[in-house]
Amino acid sequence: MTRRVGVIGQGAIARALVPLLVQDGHAVTVLARPGRGGAAVQRGWDVVESLPDLMKRRPFAVIEAAGQAALAQHGAPVLRSGVALIAASVGALADDALLGTLEQAAQAGGAQLHLPSGAIGGIDALAALARAGPVTLRYTGTKPPAAWPDGVPSGRFFAGTAREAALSFPKNANVAAILALAGPGLDATRVDLVSDATATGNTHAWEARAAGGEMAMTLRNAPSDGNASTSALTVHSLHRTLHNLIAATVV
Length: 251
Fold this sequence. Notes:
This protein is of the alpha/beta class. The chain contains nine helices and 13 strands. The chain has two domains: 112 residues, Rossmann fold (3-Layer(aba) Sandwich); 106 residues, Dihydrodipicolinate Reductase, domain 2 (2-Layer Sandwich), CATH 3.30.360. The two termini are 22 Å apart.
């Protein structure tokens, strides 16, 4: 059975993700910014330039892959319409008002907002540990200079909370946000961000401690094609999350 999937955005994530969805047998409609959909049309994609036009295609799920502003703009209407939303830009939820709006929309529409693990792993274990009691959590993100905004100094240039990181570096701190939401929260999670000229990819490391145990994880990911700030694993995490919406067995 062919299902239609909506994808918001046509950047590096979408360019890698859409072929995977088509390969799975899905019909895909891409929401592009007005006047910016030409390249996607040339790829043979079904492209629309407004959310109402996307929703007229009756997707069973929508994947946001266009940044925090896109999630803020389109997330609530998608959920309110009763359609599942998979959000790549988890860092946008550092805005409590937006998180509340999306949760209310999901409840009103009887839909769910899905937050994929993205470029990190161990979210299931961390979330289970957090259920058992208070957790301390620290995350360090290390990427090459090209992945960070211009002007960022070499070495550790940021130390603060996950909320501060997500708001200050919206293209780079989705991992910090998903860890924090699974663990002790955005204000209790400590974050270090590092620019390393010797790095050949993106390294994500975290460690958590609680009465129920201790755990740590380090992932070294290749960047996605055309976007040094995004790990290639993010694409496959979105793909897996969508698969789990329809699979008979979910892992």
